[in-house]
């Protein structure tokens, strides 16, 4: 699977509607679901949680959990749905996630993470990857991260997606944990240098494709997070620059036109327009008319009776 460039899993943001929209801009970037817990999959509405449009592929599922047998069963279920990769969350620092004993707190238990990876790898033929931080709390020495990578790779993980910040498990909110701890790209680069056989993907603070391209001199892949959500059209050049795909990208107007049939189908299924429209506010970011686009959608897409024509009207006002 080509993972030179990917979009980070982001809770409440990278749902199926955003992923379909993003795929209209880039055919090739690897997309991730929001983190879904093993408990939700085992005991919840699986079709609602795991269902996706075929156009979203290549698509990876991010799991939250720490019970090897539960993770293995969820991996088998995910494989039956057609996902291309299973990713284990070992990076989220929120209190809720810690209380469930998964996320970044698992960096303190590399042996358990290795068991989880091995259980999933034995259960499915899909690649099992791990998304992590460079450290937690006071365990942020390079040697701590290297030990984690060594132990987890022994369980069968060949790909590590490393957010180049440490996480403070107490005292900082999830948002502060994305901004306050300093970025340490040098740590991620050193991991790649010391473990050349592993695939290392860098995450954290990458704001555009130029930055991503510079990082690829030292690592195997780059994952972009909030920049891709707030400025989604930056992905329009991704296929050509990173995947050698010379097919012309859709214009912003063409993206809107291509999105309409999907929206109409969602409306027929009882989904309100706002569920999709909230993800596309950044389509005209930093473009003339961008403010008009956001204002029109914010005012009209939230109405219960709003239909797909709202997208055309917003685009028309913006283009004018």
Q: What can you see in these coordinates?
A:
With 320 residues, the chain is α/β, with parallel strands linked by helices. The chain folds into 2 domains: 5-243, TIM Barrel (Alpha-Beta Barrel); 252-319, Up-down Bundle (Four Helix Bundle (Hemerythrin (Met), subunit A)), CATH 1.20.120. The chain has 16 helices and 8 strands. The chain has helices spanning 16-25, 38-43, 46-50, 68-81, 95-99, 110-123, 142-153, 174-179, 185-194, 209-215, 226-230, 238-243, 252-268, 273-277, 290-300, 309-319, and strands at residues 5-7, 31-37, 59-64, 85-90, 128-133, 159-163, 199-203, 221-224. It has an 8-stranded parallel sheet with strand order 1-8-7-6-5-4-3-2. α7 links the parallel β5 and β6 (159-163). α1 packs antiparallel against α13 (252-268). The protein is globular, with a radius of gyration of 20 Å. The relative contact order is 0.12. The mean pLDDT is 95.
Structure keywords:
320 residues, alpha/beta, Four Helix Bundle (Hemerythrin (Met), subunit A), 2 domains, 8 strands, 13% strand, RNA-binding, tRNA binding
**For the record, what is the CATH homologous superfamily label of the largest domain?**
Aldolase class I
What's the shape? Answer: globular
- Report helical residue fraction: 40-55%
Q: Classify the fold: give the CATH topology of the largest domain.
A: TIM Barrel
Q: Can you identify the CATH class of the largest domain? A: Alpha Beta
Span from first to last CA?
41 Å
Structural class: alpha/beta
Biggest sheet: strand arrangement: 1-8-7-6-5-4-3-2
Function: Catalyzes the synthesis of 5,6-dihydrouridine (D), a modified base found in the D-loop of most tRNAs, via the reduction of the C5-C6 double bond in target uridines. Specifically modifies U20 and U20a in tRNAs.
Binding site for FMN: 9-11, 62, 131, 163, 203-205, 225-226
Domain DUS-like FMN-binding: 7-310
Site (Interacts with tRNA): 89, 178, 291, 294
């Amino acid at each position: 699977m080509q993972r030179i460039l990917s979009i980070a899993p982001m809770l409440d943001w990278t749902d199926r509607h955003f992923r379909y929209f993003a795929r209209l801009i880039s055919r090739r970037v690897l997309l991730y679901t929001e983190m879904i817990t093993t408990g939700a999959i085992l005991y919840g509405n699986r079709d609602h949680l795991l269902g996706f449009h075929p156009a979203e592929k290549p698509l990876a599922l991010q799991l939250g959990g720490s019970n090897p047998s539960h993770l293995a069963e969820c991996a088998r279920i995910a494989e039956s749905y057609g996902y291309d990769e299973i990713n284990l969350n070992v990076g989220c620092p929120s209190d809720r996630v810690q209380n469930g004993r998964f996320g970044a707190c698992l960096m303190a238990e590399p042996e358990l993470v290795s068991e989880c990876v091995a259980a999933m790898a034995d259960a499915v033929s899909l690649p099992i990857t791990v998304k992590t931080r460079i450290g937690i709390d006071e365990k942020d020495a390079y040697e701590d991260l290297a030990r984690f990578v060594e132990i987890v790779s022994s369980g069968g993980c060949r790909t590590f997606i490393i957010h180049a910040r440490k996480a403070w498990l107490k005292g900082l909110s999830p948002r502060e944990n994305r901004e306050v701890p300093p970025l340490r790209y040098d740590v991620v680069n050193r991991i790649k240098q010391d473990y050349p056989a592993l695939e290392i993907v860098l995450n954290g603070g990458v704001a555009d494709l130029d930055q991503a391209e510079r990082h690829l001199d030292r690592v195997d892949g780059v994952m972009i997070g909030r920049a891709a959500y707030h400025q989604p059209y930056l992905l329009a050049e991704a296929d050509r620059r990173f995947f050698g795909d010379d097919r012309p990208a859709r214009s912003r107007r063409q993206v809107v036109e291509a999105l309409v049939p999907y929206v109409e189908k969602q409306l027929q299924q009882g989904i309100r327009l706002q569920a999709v429209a909230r993800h596309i506010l950044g389509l005209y970011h930093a473009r003339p008319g961008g403010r008009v686009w956001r204002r029109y959608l914010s005012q009209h897409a939230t109405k219960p009776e709003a239909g797909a024509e709202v997208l055309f009207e917003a685009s028309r006002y913006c283009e004018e």
